[in-house]
Design brief:
about 130 residues, mainly beta, 6-stranded antiparallel β-sheet, 1 helix, 9 strands, about 35% strand
Length: about 130
């Protein structure tokens, strides 16, 4: 028999012989507490707590007044909700002053940065990327 055919037959046998032995875990809903999430102290003074699912993440960020992030971009889309305080959002030539309840949407790869005009808290939803 041709080596290529033997290889293919062997591969098919291995795939099907292991098909019944591996278990598939069904996804399930889980409960987490914000207080129990690990906090990270960022170099610029922010304190973050993050949780990630399979396709979306959520980050709570505490922004001390005067905190400024370096302009940056990333492969994931980002939606930021300001919970309290005031935050300046900069994206290219665009600038917004966020007040509590305001949301800003930052598409993937768009350069952006922030300045905390006073002590602030945001909730950020991040997509895969």
């Amino acid at each position: 028999m041709n080596k290529k055919i033997i290889f293919i037959v062997t591969l098919i046998f291995l795939v099907f012989s292991n098909a019944g032995s591996s278990q598939i875990t069904a996804p399930k809903m889980m409960l987490h507490s914000l207080e129990n999430l690990e906090s990270r102290n960022m170099e610029d003074g922010r304190v973050t707590r993050r949780i990630s699912g399979d396709a979306v993440g959520l980050i709570r960020v505490e922004w001390p007044a005067g905190t400024i992030t370096t302009p940056h971009n990333h492969a994931n889309e980002l939606i930021i909700l300001l919970i309290e305080g005031r935050l300046r959002a900069l994206g290219g030539e665009t600038e917004f002053i966020l007040m509590p309840g305001d949301l800003v949407v930052v598409p993937a790869y768009v350069e952006h940065g922030y300045e905390a005009l006073e002590d602030s808290i945001t909730i950020e939803a991040v997509g895969p990327g």
